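Weekly modeling sync, notes
Attendees: AB, CL, MP (scribe)

Item 1: holo prediction request
CL wants a bound-state model with D-ribose before deciding which constructs to order. AB pointed out that an apo prediction alone won't tell us much about the pocket. Agreed to run with the ligand included and paste results into these notes for async review.

Input as submitted:
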Amino acid sequence: MTDSKRIVLSSDHAAIPLRLVIADHIAAQGWDVVDIGPTTPESTHYPKHGEAAARQVAAGDCQFGIILCGTGQGIMMAANKVKGIRCGVCVDTFSARMIRQHNDANMMSLGARVVGEGLALDIVDAFLNTRFEGGRHATRVDMIDALEG
Ligand code: RB5
């Protein structure tokens, strides 16, 4: 984990209020938050928002990304199509810690229709405050990345 503390946030229409709460929460912790919207509630397409956030992480402009949609699933699937992205959906704090510790996840996805605000913030904290363990897990992460060709 580097110390850049720059993080990109994105969502579809289903998760705008939760995304804004998360943005405030992590900004208060000193993160430089790059919130790329959307800002208006019209129905939109989660793949383009997942991709936009993923591109910033893949390019190294942001250390991490947090993305949200109704379930967290569709936007996660889109983000994981971008080379270099390892994104997991989290509905619990254990998984949020483990995707950092074992999988070196650089993005996390949340479902605004799945988790409440309090749990979502705990999940975000667990993700951002856990370091990658390396060692045998680095071998496995390399194997994941090798699948990208
Ligand atoms: C939008 O209705 C919904 O399909 C989307 O937010 C997400 O849950 C898709 O995975």
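Recorded for review: The two ends are 24 Å apart (CA to CA).
Action items: CL to compare against the apo run; MP to circulate these notes.
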